[in-house]
């Protein structure tokens, strides 16, 4: 089965019958087609869509095809193929000089038109693919720099990532908050078979069963959906144990069937993903408690990679701290402060509950203090401890706020859930789902 996304073309022609004729020809050739009657509408369309090629008439009211060509940024815009019943050699030469991919005269020969459009679309996709690859390779300066460390645990992890990157097996990443699970997911993708393909990260805790299908599967005639747009790449399911049960069922169906049915569509659309998931929870316990479907877990845990917490990598502390200090010294344009014995003692004495993320923040504070002519690692760590009660991420902060607000509502209404839900402005079912997801104990609150 060929799961490559069909080529997308934007047809621009003020002649309704010609526009419809081109649409019918292209759709019969399995192209995804959008059509506009005016060139002045193209800029707005490109802000919300990504065609692989633009097929435009030359002579149109308001803005001609040549003027449209001149208005587009050649470095980022799709190639333009011009078509005209009034074409002549000087016009064709001028169009090519102005950057047009090709020039077709009406009446057109269908096979030639399709060939020109296909070549233009293929080159544009290749250009975008190479640009994405170069960008990722620039960011990916080596796996040893992403998973920095020399302890056996991190060395083994790097080797496992390299071994698995060229496969399509599902990988479950387990590790405490801040250990770098998303970094590992990106490494698996960037070192894999299709690094130029999309990497779609979903925060499962934020998924809504009510809007899941429209957002993820798309709406027929309106949007492709996030899963369809990312087909061929990697689907990263973060915080999988916090996924609402109804959304878990829909994800399972997509993973098993390798297809999605857009809202309002009659036929399903094939999709293909390499699935990588992550959690900081015990998945076995989550499955036993009914928070994670066992059949979904079995689809996700073909291979399980455990990311070690920083407290188990104390031999890497100095290496990591030196790396982050150098990184932030360059950012803030100052000399790197040397680590003295007191700094080393502070690094080794701290338990690092926030793991590598916490260490990175401590090193940035150390550099900021050095800009003012002072500071130490111990002081930077102490600053972090002042904020122990503040969640480390916006997602955690929102969850903490929801937990407090729901708890207060339940207490205020003495456990009457309908009244609490009404006071919070949400449905009873949504309230129940949030209580489960946030781990609230209703009896304890009362």
UniProtKB/TrEMBL annotation:
Which is a GO BP term held by this UniProt record? Answer: phosphorelay signal transduction system
Q: Key word Ligase present in the record?
A: no
Q: Where is the Response regulatory domain?
A: 8-121
Listed GO MF terms: ATP binding; sequence-specific DNA binding
Q: Pfam families of this UniProt entry?
A: AAA_lid_14, HTH_8, Response_reg, Sigma54_activat
Residues forming the Sigma-54 factor interaction domain are 147-368
Q: Which residues carry this modification: 4-aspartylphosphate?
A: 57
Alphabetical keyword list: Activator, ATP-binding, DNA-binding, Nucleotide-binding, Phosphoprotein, Transcription, Transcription regulation, Two-component regulatory system
Q: Does the keyword Lipid biosynthesis apply?
A: no
Q: Cite the PANTHER family for this sequence.
A: C4-DICARBOXYLATE TRANSPORT TRANSCRIPTIONAL REGULATORY PROTEIN DCTD, TRANSCRIPTIONAL REGULATORY PROTEIN
Recorded protein name is: Two-component system, NtrC family, C4-dicarboxylate transport response regulator DctD/two-component system, response regulator AauR
Say which species the protein is native to: Ruegeria faecimaris
What is this organism's lineage? Bacteria, Pseudomonadati, Pseudomonadota, Alphaproteobacteria, Rhodobacterales
């Amino acid at each position: 089965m060929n799961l490559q996304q069909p080529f997308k073309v934007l047809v621009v022609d003020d002649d309704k019958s010609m526009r419809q004729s081109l649409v019918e020809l292209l759709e019969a050739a399995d192209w995804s087609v959008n059509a506009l009657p005016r060139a002045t509408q193209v800029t707005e369309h490109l802000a919300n869509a990504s065609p692989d090629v633009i097929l435009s008439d030359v002579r149109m009211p308001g803005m001609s095809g040549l003027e449209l060509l001149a208005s587009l940024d050649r470095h980022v815009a799709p190639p333009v193929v011009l078509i005209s019943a009034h074409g002549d050699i000087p016009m064709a030469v001028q169009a090519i000089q102005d950057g047009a991919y090709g020039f077709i005269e009406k009446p057109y020969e269908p096979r030639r038109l399709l060939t020109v459009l296909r070549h233009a679309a293929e080159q544009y996709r290749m250009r975008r693919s190479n640009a994405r690859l170069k960008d990722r390779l620039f960011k990916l300066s080596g796996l040893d720099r992403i998973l920095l460390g020399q302890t056996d645990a991190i060395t083994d992890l790097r080797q496992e990532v390299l071994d698995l990157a060229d496969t399509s097996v599902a990988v479950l990443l387990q590790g405490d908050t801040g250990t770098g699970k998303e970094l590992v997911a990106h490494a698996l993708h960037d070192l894999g078979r299709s690094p130029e393909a999309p990497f779609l990260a979903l925060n499962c805790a934020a998924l809504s069963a009510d809007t899941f299908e429209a957002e993820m599967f798309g709406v027929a005639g309106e949007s492709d959906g996030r899963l369809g747009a990312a087909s061929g790449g990697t689907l990263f399911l973060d915080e999988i144990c916090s996924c609402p049960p109804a959304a878990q069922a829909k994800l399972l169906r997509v993973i098993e069937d390798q297809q999605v049915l857009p809202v309002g569509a009659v036929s399903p659309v094939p999709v293909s993903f390499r699935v990588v998931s992550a959690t900081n929870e015990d998945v076995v316990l989550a499955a036993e408690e009914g928070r994670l479907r066992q059949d979904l877990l079995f689809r996700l845990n073909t291979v399980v990679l455990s990311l070690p917490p920083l407290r188990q990598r104390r031999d890497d502390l100095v290496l990591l701290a030196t790396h982050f200090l150098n990184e932030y010294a360059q950012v803030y344009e100052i000399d790197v402060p040397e680590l003295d014995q007191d700094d080393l003692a502070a690094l080794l004495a701290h338990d690092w509950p926030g793991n590598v993320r916490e260490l990175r923040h401590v090193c940035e504070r150390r550099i900021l203090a050095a800009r003012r002519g002072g500071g130490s690692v111990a002081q930077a760590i102490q600053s972090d401890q002042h904020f122990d009660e503040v969640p480390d991420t916006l997602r955690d902060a929102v969850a903490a706020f929801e937990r407090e607000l729901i708890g207060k509502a339940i207490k205020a209404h003495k456990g009457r859930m309908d009244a609490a839900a009404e006071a919070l402005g949400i449905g009873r079912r949504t309230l129940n789902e949030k209580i489960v997801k946030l781990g609230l104990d209703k009896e304890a609150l009362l």
